[in-house]
Specification:
Residues 80-115 form the Zinc finger DksA/TraR C4-type domain. By secondary structure, the chain is mainly alpha-helical. It folds into two domains: 1-82, Up-down Bundle (Four Helix Bundle (Hemerythrin (Met), subunit A)); 84-118, no CATH class. Helix content is 78%, strand content 0%. Helix 1 runs antiparallel to helix 2 (43-79).
């Protein structure tokens, strides 16, 4: 794989990682605020806060999963295996990596996996 492309992707992944970490930190602060509100609120406030807390938790889980995928992609860059399909070993097209920089599989293998999981 082209070294310039790898460098570009590594920089992009590091920036995405930084953004996600900041987002997770902000969500933790929001969660603390919700907990304080629940302790002093009425029943309607408590119900609304439960919904807010559930939403923040779900978003936090999605961000945490994406962070794990980004870290895995950065590890593959460092190991020299980035851009190779983990299933068939073929090179993943750069266009796919630009859209989904932490892709593990080529389009054919990813499609087959999706069909299998249905």
């Amino acid at each position: 794989m082209d070294k310039a492309f790898l460098k570009k992707m590594k920089e992009y992944l590091l920036e995405q990682r930084k953004t996600l970490l900041a987002s997770l930190a902000d969500q933790s602060e929001d969660m603390r605020g919700l907990i304080k509100t629940v302790e002093s609120g009425d029943e309607a406030d408590v119900a609304a806060d439960v919904i807010d807390r559930t939403l923040l938790t779900a978003l936090g889980t999605q961000d945490a999963n994406r962070l794990q995928q980004i870290d895995s992609a950065l590890d593959r860059i460092n190991q020299g295996t980035y851009g190779r399909c983990v299933k068939c070993g073929k090179e993943i097209p750069q266009e796919r990596l630009e859209v989904l920089p932490y892709a593990l599989m080529c389009i054919n293998c990813a499609s087959a996996q999706e069909r299998k999981n249905r």
